């Protein structure tokens, strides 16, 4: 390990320090209270104060001497042929230092994290609204924007393909064709039938990750002809490799430094945002900064796949599932991005966490001229959860069975087999979760009085009448996979160094709000008994740790930190064990002290260190998976996580307005590593799911994004968030996962929309087969009863 890496510092990025006070090693607090440090403690995030005070350095805050500003010209059309691009007027403007188009890309002209199919700048064809055409660097941001607007582009406007069902027969939108992937899943007997059959057609809208912080970056040229890019990347090594290929440089001449990430619920930044920055910095020889507007963010980054789902469920007279048939169509937009992985999750989980003897699923992902789709928390799984839970409600109504009871009769458990043929080997307490939310007491009904008007849908001064309010109770049960799937090589590397009673963790796992930096500190405190732990800033000089998705960093990067810390622990204890003629396994570290099983040895960690510097580097690589075969069969997933939600809603059946009163949650978490952090993650996931259920839909008209701003795109606020009751956390440890923990935030996002839709069905008797739920879907012409 190089000295530079071991002593990683930055003038712009803070290191993540340990909270002051409290015993090390995860020991209990006073009076038997939960531990103050180590695993199981509610250790606060070290950057909390800086973020709350506004001193945390986000990418939008970066500055450099001689800074230039960038602006990107984007297509106003979703589909067009480019006849000519004239940059002369822009280049002649005072203060403009460079203008770049597709002709100025020295390396690969296309890029893609998963499929290399997306141009840095459109050359011949525009395939979606907002696609980059050119970029400008100037000495003032206003000059850059004016220069970008002065670039003259002549288009031949083409008819856009916006209906994914028509993409199959349409002219190819891309050299790779319109079909990205087709998965035909075949499991069981195709001739099997049930006594009761229900069918449904479901549509899921386009949810945007809507990162709160501005998407921004700074590119700085290096003396060796390379470039450094400072940005809020969630996968810096992949972004570096993509950028280097487009720059025509070796990867070691491009460095990505991760700045403060203001939260991420998907790929935080599209690499196409970073590549123009680097090109302009290399062209001008000056630092170049770009801070995207909210409109540019909506136009540029990937969204959740809009999805069309057709279902047919077969069941016997007792409500036990016999067969599920489904067709799933994902709208990928113009480029492939994560569509293949999203489709695999959608097809594999199309039957939900239920035992299904026979399943026949057809899944497709297709290109259109709609905005690009990609990785957003719970991709694929969220869309099918809304559909299969709608089907379970239909079955319950047709059979006259309580909806929760019907789900319990079909609940998946450990040892059952998924429709992909994979045996569920991890804990799968689906029935336990569902029983917990079903049995939780229901909230009280609001009083019909003026002072409680704010409790009605629509809030104070709303037009609704109390007599038009109907309460509904609904259920959702969801599942997600952990880590990558279908043969993805999951690996992460971490280094732990201890000197003078201070530990430093060096790992390229990006802290996106999921709490990895806090977890890394807790792991080292637990294993080494060192109270003061720093986490070094992330850049691509460190070994790769992979993307911040699917709970990877809790499992893979946390596992790497654990292994490295245990190696350092062995280095620390071996001299003592040798001196006293015993095994290191007979020594323990707790509360900053090292003691032997017989009490003969007792010393502090500081005394044992004796001024030495100890360090170790380790990797964590989970067991391999395999791609789904031509019949949709295969052990494609490392592990699974489950969640059950009971939603209580009030619906104004005359206006169609919906108020979510309460969400009761029970979740399979494996092990609670940080109670406060876990609670926050679950609550945030539920709230994001409520947004998908009721308000969030990035609307388009013939491929054009309508209202690409936060006035036209309605995010749920604190006033929209209901009471969220976490009624049970099942801590049945997954034996193959480090610490036994499972990811926390994706599965509530997946499950919450289905539960809200189920509750609205309960209140109105309407089918509710579209998300987000439109007011007209909740209107009842003749009030029930």
Description:
The structure is a single chain. The longest helix is centred in the last third of the chain and has 28 residues, at 552-579. Helix 8 (339-348) packs parallel to helix 9 and helix 12 runs parallel beside helix 13 (552-579). 57% of the residues are buried. The strands form 8 sheets. The protein has a 7-stranded mixed β-sheet with strand order 3-7-1-14-11-12-13. A 6-stranded mixed β-sheet has the order 9-17-16-15-10-31. The chain has a 4-stranded mixed β-sheet with strand order 18-26-27-30, sandwiched between helices. Helices cover 24% and strands 25% of the residues. Strand 22 and strand 23 (593-596) form a beta hairpin. The protein is α+β, with helices and mostly antiparallel strands and 785 residues long. Residues 53-159 form the Aldehyde oxidase/xanthine dehydrogenase a/b hammerhead domain. GO terms for molecular function: iron ion binding; oxidoreductase activity.
Pick out its properties.
alpha+beta, Ald_Oxase/Xan_DH_a/b_sf, disordered N terminus, globular, 785 residues, 16 helices, 6-stranded mixed beta sheet, 7-stranded mixed beta sheet, 25% strand, AldOxase/xan_DH_Mopterin-bd_sf
């Amino acid at each position: 390990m190089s000295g530079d890496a071991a002593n990683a510092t930055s003038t712009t990025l803070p290191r993540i320090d340990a909270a002051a006070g409290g015993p090390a090693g995860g020991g209990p607090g006073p009076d038997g209270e939960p531990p103050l440090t180590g695993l199981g403690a509610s250790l606060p995030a070290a950057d909390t104060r800086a973020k709350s005070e506004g001193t945390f350095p986000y990418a939008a805050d970066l500055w450099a001497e001689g800074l230039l500003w960038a602006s990107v010209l984007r297509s106003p059309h979703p589909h067009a042929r480019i006849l000519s691009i004239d940059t002369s007027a822009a280049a002649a403007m005072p203060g403009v230092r460079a203008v770049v188009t597709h002709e100025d890309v020295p390396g690969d002209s296309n890029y893609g994290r998963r499929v290399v199919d997306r141009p840095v700048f459109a050359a011949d064809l525009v395939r979606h609204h907002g696609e980059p055409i050119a970029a400008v660097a100037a000495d003032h941001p206003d000059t850059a924007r004016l220069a970008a607007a002065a670039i003259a582009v002549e288009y031949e406007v083409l008819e856009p393909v916006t209906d994914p069902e028509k993409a199959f027969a349409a002219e190819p939108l891309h050299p790779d064709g319109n079909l990205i992937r087709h998965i035909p899943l075949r499991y069981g007997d195709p001739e099997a039938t049930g006594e009761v059959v229900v069918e449904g057609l479901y549509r899921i809208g386009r949810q945007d990750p809507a990162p709160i912080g501005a998407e921004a970056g700074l590119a700085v040229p290096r003396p060796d002809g390379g470039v450094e890019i400072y940005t809020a990347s969630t996968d810096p090594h992949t972004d570096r490799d993509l950028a280097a290929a487009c720059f025509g440089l070796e990867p070691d001449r491009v460095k990505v430094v991760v700045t403060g990430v203001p939260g991420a619920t998907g790929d935080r930044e599209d690499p196409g945002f970073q590549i123009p920055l680097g090109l302009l910095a290399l062209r001008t020889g000056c630092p170049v900064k770009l801070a995207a507007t909210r409109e540019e963010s909506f136009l540029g980054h990937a969204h959740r796949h809009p999805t069309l789902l057709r279902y047919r469920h077969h069941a016997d007279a007792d409500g036990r599932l016999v067969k599920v048939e489904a067709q799933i169509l994902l709208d990928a937009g113009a480029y492939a991005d994560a569509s293949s992985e999203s489709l695999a999750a959608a097809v594999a989980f199309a039957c939900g966490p239920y035992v299904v003897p026979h399943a026949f699923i057809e899944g497709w992902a297709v290109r259109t001229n709609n905005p690009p789709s990609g990785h957003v928390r719970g991709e694929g799984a969220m869309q099918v959860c809304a559909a299969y839970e709608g089907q379970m409600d239909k079955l319950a109504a047709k059979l006259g069975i309580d909806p929760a009871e019907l789900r319990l009769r079909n609940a998946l458990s450990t040892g059952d087999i998924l429709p992909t043929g994979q045996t569920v080997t991890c804990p799968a307490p689906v029935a336990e979760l569902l029983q917990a939310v079903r049995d939780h007491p229901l909230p009280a009904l609001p009083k019909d009085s003026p002072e409680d008007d704010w409790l009605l849908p629509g809030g104070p001064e709303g037009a609704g009448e109390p007599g038009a309010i109907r309460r509904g109770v609904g259920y959702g049960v969801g599942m997600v996979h952990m880590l990558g799937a279908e043969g993805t090589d999951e690996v992460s590397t971490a280094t732990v160094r201890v000197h003078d009673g201070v530990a430093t963790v060096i790992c390229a796992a990006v802290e996106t709000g999921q709490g990895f930096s806090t977890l890394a500190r807790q792991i080292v405190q637990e294993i080494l008994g060192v109270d003061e732990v720093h986490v070094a800033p992330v850049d691509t000089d460190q070994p790769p740790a992979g993307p911040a998705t699917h709970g990877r960093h809790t499992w893979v990067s946390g596992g790497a930190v654990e292994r490295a810390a245990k190696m350092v622990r062995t280095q620390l204890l071996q001299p003592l064990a040798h001196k006293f003629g015993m095994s290191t396994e007979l020594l323990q570290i707790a509360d900053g002290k090292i003691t032997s099983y017989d009490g003969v040895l007792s010393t502090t960690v500081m005394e044992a260190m004796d001024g030495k510097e100890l360090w170790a580097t380790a990797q964590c690589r989970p067991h391999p998976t395999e791609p789904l075969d031509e019949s949709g069969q295969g052990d494609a997933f490392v592990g699974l996580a489950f969640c059950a939600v009971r939603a209580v809603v009030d619906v104004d059946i005359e206006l169609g307005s919906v108020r979510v009163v309460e969400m009761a949650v029970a979740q399979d978490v494996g092990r609670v590593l940080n109670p406060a952090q876990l609670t926050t993650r679950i609550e945030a996931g539920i709230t994001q799911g409520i947004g998908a259920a009721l308000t969030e839909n990035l609307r388009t008209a013939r491929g054009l994004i309508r209202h690409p701003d936060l006035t036209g795109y309605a995010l749920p606020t604190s006033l929209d968030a209901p009471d969220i009751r976490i009624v049970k956390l099942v801590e049945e440890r997954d034996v193959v996962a480090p610490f036994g923990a499972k990811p926390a935030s994706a599965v509530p996002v997946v499950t919450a929309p289905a539960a809200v839709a189920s509750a609205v069905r309960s209140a109105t008797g309407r089918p509710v087969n579209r998300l987000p739920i439109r007011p007209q879907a909740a209107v009842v012409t003749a009030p029930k009863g």
